[in-house]
């Protein structure tokens, strides 16, 4: 399976419309990939709290339209990262979208764990309530967004729902980059699953981004890692390795808390 992680830079001097078009062009450039992934809140910036209200869109707004068209033109499964969704009742959500190679939306995931404690995303946005998986021909994706990475119970739930490849779209700050790598590897090892973790590059709202998107295999080995700047990280991996790992080292069968399969 071939996956391309687009570590796009969020430049405050670039308009949201311009970045949408540029992101779409980067997606289309990944023809031949099976899966393409964008990071969290790339249209506006994960820490650009003051822009959330003005840039919020309905679920099927401009970001949805542009990404659906890009997925269809490239002929890829597209995890389009996340954007600021405004629900019908006015609530804002940090919502990730997944499209089929025909450009059909097959999933929407509202981020469950909101970052900021008593400010920022935690007070400006509603919390999602549902785990989301997406069955691809070669693997089943489990969706997570940024701060979710710190909550292992979410990933256990995704594994119990059949996930074999955990996709984490993030806007992770550079000052906690060591946690980013550590937690991505931990989620892979404890769940015996691939982790595809893609972050932003650049600086927005005066918060430098970590970059360093990475792909981790079910044994915790980092198969590929990006640098700090804008980059497309492409990696080939064997989706069947998940089942082989779980058979060779069946630790998940020894769970005493929660489902045991």
Characterization of the model:
There is one protein chain. A 6-stranded mixed beta sheet has the order 5-4-3-2-1-14. Strands 6-7-8-9-12-13 form a 6-stranded mixed beta sheet, with helices on one face. The longest helix has 15 residues, at 177-191. Helix 1 (16-28) runs parallel beside helix 3 (62-74). The model has no long low-confidence stretch (mean pLDDT 97). With 261 residues, the protein is of the alpha/beta class. The chain has helices at 16-28, 52-55, 62-74, 121-124, 152-160, 177-191, 241-248, and strands at residues 2-7, 35-37, 77-86, 92-99, 105-110, 133-135, 140-145, 165-169, 194-198, 203-204, 207-208, 214-216, 222-225, 231-236. It has a single domain, classed as Nitrilase/N-carbamoyl-D-aminoacid amidohydrolase (4-Layer Sandwich). The chain is globular, with a radius of gyration of 17 Å. Helices cover 25% and strands 26% of the residues. The chain has 7 helices and 14 strands. Strand 12 (214-216) and strand 13 (222-225) form a beta hairpin.
Topology:
Layout: E1 2-7, H1 16-28, E2 35-37, H2 52-55, H3 62-74, E3 77-86, E4 92-99, E5 105-110, H4 121-124, E6 133-135, E7 140-145, H5 152-160, E8 165-169, H6 177-191, E9 194-198, E10 203-204, E11 207-208, E12 214-216, E13 222-225, E14 231-236, H7 241-248
Helix pairs in contact: 1-3
Condensed summary:
The protein has 261 residues and is an alpha/beta fold.
CATH superfamily: Carbon-nitrogen hydrolase
Order of secondary-structure elements: EHEHHEEEHEEHEHEEEEEEH
Largest sheet: 6 strands, mixed
Distinct helical segment count = 7
The gross shape turns out to be globular
Structural class: alpha/beta
E-strand count: 14
pLDDT < 50 stretches: none
Count of all domains: 1
Approximately how much beta-strand content do the residues carry?
25-35%
Instruction: Tell me which CATH architecture applies here.
Output: 4-Layer Sandwich
Round the Cα radius of gyration to an integer and report it. 17 Å
CATH class: Alpha Beta
Mean pLDDT: 97
């Amino acid at each position: 399976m071939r996956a391309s992680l687009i570590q796009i830079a969020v430049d405050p001097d670039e308009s949201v419309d311009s970045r949408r078009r540029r992101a779409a062009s980067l997606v289309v450039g990944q023809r031949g990939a099976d899966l393409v992934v964008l990071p969290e809140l790339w249209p506006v910036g994960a820490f650009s709290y003051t822009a959330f209200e003005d840039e919020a869109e309905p679920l099927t707004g401009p970001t949805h339209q542009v990404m659906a068209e890009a997925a269809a033109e490239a002929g890829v499964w597209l995890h389009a990262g996340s954007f600021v969704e405004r629900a019908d009742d006015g609530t804002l959500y940090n919502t990730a979208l997944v499209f089929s190679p025909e450009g059909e939306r097959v999933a929407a995931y509202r981020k469950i764990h909101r970052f900021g404690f008593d400010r920022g995303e935690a007070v400006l946005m509603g919390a999602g309530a549902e785990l989301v998986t997406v069955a691809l021909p070669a693997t089943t994706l489990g969706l997570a967004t940024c701060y979710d990475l710190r909550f292992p119970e979410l990933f256990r739930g995704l594994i119990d729902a059949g996930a074999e490849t955990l996709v984490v779209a993030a806007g992770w700050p550079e000052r906690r980059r060591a946690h980013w790598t550590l937690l991505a590897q931990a989620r892979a090892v404890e769940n015996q699953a691939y982790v595809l973790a893609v972050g932003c590059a650049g600086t927005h709202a005066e918060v430098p981004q970590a970059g360093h998107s990475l792909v981790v295999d079910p044994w915790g080995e980092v198969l590929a890692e990006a640098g700090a700047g804008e980059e497309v990280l492409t990696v080939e991996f064997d989706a069947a390795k998940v089942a082989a790992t779980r058979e060779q080292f069946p630790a998940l069968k020894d769970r005493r808390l929660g489902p045991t399969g």
